[in-house]
Design brief:
- The structure holds two protein chains of two kinds.
- Helix content of chain A is 83%, strand content 0%.
- By secondary structure, chain A is mainly alpha-helical.
- In chain A, α3 crosses α9 and α4 crosses α6.
- By secondary structure, chain B is α/β, with parallel strands linked by helices.
- In chain B, a hairpin with a 4-residue loop joins β8 and β9.
- In chain B, 43% of the residues are buried.
- The chains are: A mainly alpha, B alpha/beta.
- At the A-B interface, α7, α8 and α11 of A face β5 of B.
């Protein structure tokens, strides 16, 4: 098929054009559907933009609160995931010991545990932070575990020849080798931490301070779907922001090593 | 007089009960010389090199006379991508005393590239960094596992020539595992032809080509022919002197 005159020739141009086209189609479909079902069920894109503008101060506070819960949860998940994956590499006994708990964290429905967390922690950002941690933990743990096993026999043989201990091997070889895999895991975990925080806020937030999860529920229950959609837009922006942050971190660190 | 490097009735299998890759192999390798272990791919020569390095425990038999200060050079440069050239060369310094990395880099012709990352090097430069890292700890024994095989012809010859000159100047023992017959003959003082598995010696060759060695020298081709004959079963394997007739 001959290339079209209006379709960009460069790789980046085609990427940008594809993104704009995809978003445009999505918004058009949304608009058509909203016009058909009415504003109480589905607000138009303009109504959502209007809600974002009029509720901007409350949304900003909510975004800050949810971002802080998701960020702390993600950071804790990263620390815990890397530590437990390293411990599992270090000792098969430790790996077997923690396996049931790691599996539990992977399959645990956050919605089911969130009410218990409210009982234990009370209302506030604590519940959202813990649910963000639970949601983000497994991708970090699994990706770090895969990365720790990445170095080939030559590199491990080289260190053994020097008389390196297992601690040296972990610190000098395996953890740096695991970074590309860890970054991929963090990108997944970043999005999941925002979802986890919002699910936690559905149950554990009373609106003081406002949170995105609370505003979604409040908007849905008080015939303000425009506000719910505005909060959902904030959540999407947060998730994209976390992913962009991880990509930036990736470029600044391993990007130099591998030329990405 | 320091004892030679020896294996006595050495056997090794990758797992208990598995077919042995090496079975009751006894070898003697003189110190300070350049020895090539040559044989077809998969015959077990790389496993022997790892046993000599102490990287694998033998299933039975012994390895003796291996010095404490030893280095290993792999077919790929095995550089750590997150360390600069200087940091890669200085890596053995975390475990034992080393020469200044800049000095080791200068010896392999890489002065001025200390701050580059491995991805910024050509294949030949990366291999030179790997050699500098091997030499920085002043090893008495350098084990090379197909270390030059992955390089293009011109790069390979230059690097081999430099390495041979360093080995002659410093006097460390070099054991090169290779399947390239020409490389084995023109680089080494002694060639041990191996076949397997299980690994067995099919012939030994003493090579005396004089100080100015060259892969294109007239004495190389007949010795390569002799070696090739051993592997194809046409020649008489045994103890041979590799001094060319013209010398």
């Amino acid at each position: 098929m001959a290339p079209s005159r209006w379709w960009p020739r460069s790789e980046s141009g085609r990427e940008a054009a594809g993104l704009v086209l995809g978003l445009g189609l999505g918004v058009a479909l949304w608009w058509a559907l909203a016009a058909r079902v009415g504003p109480l069920l589905l607000p138009t894109p303009v109504a959502v933009l209007d809600a974002i503008w009029t509720e901007r101060s409350r949304l900003l506070l909510a975004c800050t609160s949810t971002a802080s819960a998701a960020g702390v949860g993600l950071l804790a998940a990263a620390l815990l995931g890397v530590t437990l994956a390293s411990a599992s590499w270090w000792s098969r006994g430790v790996a077997s010991l923690i396996l049931p708990y790691v599996t539990l964290l992977q399959v645990l429905p956050i919605v089911a545990i969130a009410p218990l967390l409210v009982v234990w922690l009370g209302y506030g950002t604590g519940v959202a932070t813990v649910t963000a941690l639970i949601a983000a933990f497994y991708p970090v743990y699994a990706s770090t575990g895969t990365g720790l096993r990445a170095p080939g026999a030559n590199l491990t043989d080289l260190l053994r020849l020097y008389g390196a201990s297992r601690a040296h091997e972990l610190w000098l070889l395996r953890l740096p080798s695991a970074l590309p895999s860890l970054m991929a895991g963090l990108r997944t975990a970043g999005g999941l931490s925002v979802i986890g925080a919002i699910v936690g806020e559905f149950v554990g937030s009373n609106g003081q301070p406002p949170t995105l999860g609370f505003l979604v529920l409040y908007g849905a229950r008080s015939a303000r779907p425009d506000l719910a959609f505005a909060a959902i837009s904030g959540a999407a922006a947060l998730a994209l922001g976390v992913q962009a942050g991880v990509r930036l971190l990736e470029r600044r660190t391993i990007g130099r090593w591998y030329g990405r | 007089m320091t004892p030679p490097l020896q294996t006595h009735d050495l056997s090794w299998a990758p797992a208990p009960g598995a077919e042995p890759v090496i079975s009751r192999l006894s070898l003697e390798l003189p110190r300070g010389s350049f020895v090539a272990l040559v044989g077809p791919s998969g015959c077990g020569k790389s496993s022997l090199l790892r046993l000599l390095a102490g990287l694998r425990p033998p299933s039975s038999g012994t390895v003796s006379g291996i010095p404490e200060q030893k280095a290993f050079v792999f077919q790929d440069p095995a550089l750590l991508p997150w360390l600069t050239v200087r940091e890669n060369v200085a890596l053995p310094g975390k475990f034992s005393a080393i020469d200044p990395p800049e000095q080791a880099l200068a010896r392999v012709g890489l002065a001025g590239l200390e701050h580059r990352l491995p991805r910024e090097l050509s294949g030949g430069q990366a291999m030179r960094v790997s050699l500098a890292r091997a030499l920085v700890s002043r090893p008495e024994l350098v084990l090379l596992d197909e270390a030059f095989t992955a390089l293009d012809g011109v790069t390979r010859r230059g690097l081999q020539r430099d390495f041979r000159a360093l080995q002659q100047a410093v006097g460390f023992t070099a054991i090169l595992v290779t399947h390239e017959l020409t490389d084995a003959v023109w680089l080494a003082d002694r060639v041990i032809a191996l076949d397997g598995p299980p690994l067995r010696v099919i012939g030994r060759l003493e090579v005396s080509l004089g100080p100015n060695r060259d892969p294109e020298a007239p004495g190389v081709a007949p010795l390569v022919h002799t070696l090739a004959g051993w592997f194809s079963g046409r020649g008489d394997a045994g103890e041979l002197s590799g001094r060319p007739r013209s010398m």
